[in-house]
Amino acid sequence: MPAEQIAADLGALLLRGNRAHLYDRLTEGVVGVDSTTYPVLSGLARAGPATASRLADLIGLDRTVATRYATRLEQAGLVTRAADADDARATRLSLTPEGRQAVQTMRTALESILAEALSTSEPEEIETFARVLQRLLDALVPAPPGAPLRR
Amino acid sequence: MPAEQIAADLGALLLRGNRAHLYDRLTEGVVGVDSTTYPVLSGLARAGPATASRLADLIGLDRTVATRYATRLEQAGLVTRAADADDARATRLSLTPEGRQAVQTMRTALESILAEALSTSEPEEIETFARVLQRLLDALVPAPPGAPLRR
DNA sequence: TATTGTTATACTCTATAACTATA
DNA sequence: TATAGTTATAGAGTATAACAATA
């Protein structure tokens, strides 16, 4: 039963330093994005234009934090704010072309890092890994209130 | 090609909120340990008696932080300090019986959580998952736990 | 001169509370 | 009354710098 080893590896992966290291590798060279604003930008890319509240639910942040990081990304020219036509209280956050470019750059970097990290495994192993990882996540992680998409 | 889904799942796992949620599940009910001191206690359990500097290297923290958290754990009665016989500058950190008990409790909790999260997967799948995860970690993480450390 | 442990300081991140506007 | 966005404030976490003691 390799449960003990899985536990140790997951624990290592979650160590603050290792998490920050991975985020730094992803965002290095992308101006205006760091390890704290990355989830906001990435979430916006996944969800499409969304309000700060919805985005906050999606990535598990407080909505005040989402607003502040959105402001930072806006000042960096990666995100824009626009009034919601249906609800005058709401503000829709969207990616600018520069923001889309930044997301694309980081996605490419992530896939390249992953491809290299998985290069010593067989395709069947990788497929099994992905399958179990998905189940593990479904069991470990609380579902966001938004619910429709997490991946 | 499940690389994209792996990337998304890993990203979700590393989200600050999800990481904190997992740590909270582990440490809930264990007095004197929280999501910040958990890695220190866990690292001490893996490494055995160690100095603050060595422990800091092991878990990727600054040594000033390791010292402060060790003080907190000491005040909670989970860790003791003792002079190093070989080096008068050094202080050796050790687990108290209460500290060992706390580690055991958290390990059991982690294994139980994992066992449930993996209960829908076949043993062969889990074995493959563990194998690929290990390779992934070796490639992704700068200094894996258990590696030789600088003094 | 370098290293260990520690403390002091400043900075960053995050949540709670409060305010405004709209539903 | 409730909700969206935002700002203000305070609390916690962390790193940098500095100190004394020892190598």
Question: Quick recap of the structure?
Answer:
Chain A is mainly alpha-helical. Chain A contains seven helices and three strands. A three-stranded antiparallel beta sheet of chain A has the order 1-3-2.
Poorly predicted runs of chain A = 145-151
CATH fold call of chain A: Arc Repressor Mutant, subunit A
In helices, the fraction of residues of chain A equals: 55-70%
Radius of gyration based on Cα positions of chain A: 17 Å
The CATH homology group name of chain A: Winged helix-like DNA-binding domain superfamily/Winged helix DNA-binding domain
List how many beta strands of chain A DSSP finds: 3
Q: Which sequence of SSEs, written as H and E, runs from N to C of chain A? A: HHHEHHEEHH
Mean pLDDT rating of chain A: 89
Globular, elongated, flat, extended or rod-shaped: what is the shape of chain A? globular
Q: Class of chain A in CATH?
A: Mainly Alpha
Describe this structure in words.
Chains A, B: Residues 7-138 form the HTH marR-type domain. Chains A, B: One of its GO terms (molecular function) is DNA binding. Chains A, B: Pfam families: MarR_2. Chains A, B: Keywords: DNA-binding, Transcription, Transcription regulation. Chains A, B: InterPro entries: HTH_MarR-typ, WH-like_DNA-bd_sf, WH_DNA-bd_sf. 2 copies of one chain form a homodimer. Chain A is mainly alpha-helical. Chain A has a single domain (3-140), classed as Arc Repressor Mutant, subunit A (Orthogonal Bundle), CATH 1.10.10. Helices cover 62% and strands 8% of the residues of chain A. Chain A has 7 helices and 3 strands; from the N terminus they run H-H-H-E-H-H-E-E-H-H. Chain A has helices spanning 3-14, 16-27, 38-47, 52-59, 63-75, 97-117, 123-140, and strands at residues 50-51, 79-83, 91-95. Chain A has a 3-stranded antiparallel beta sheet. In chain A, strand 2 (79-83) and strand 3 form a beta hairpin. In chain A, helix 3 packs across helix 4 and helix 4 packs across helix 5. Chain A is globular, with a radius of gyration of 17 Å. The two termini of chain A are 29 Å apart. Chains A and B meet through helix 1, helix 2, helix 3, helix 6 and helix 7 of A and helix 1, helix 2, helix 6 and helix 7 of B. Chain B binds a DNA duplex (23 and 23 nucleotides) through helix 5.
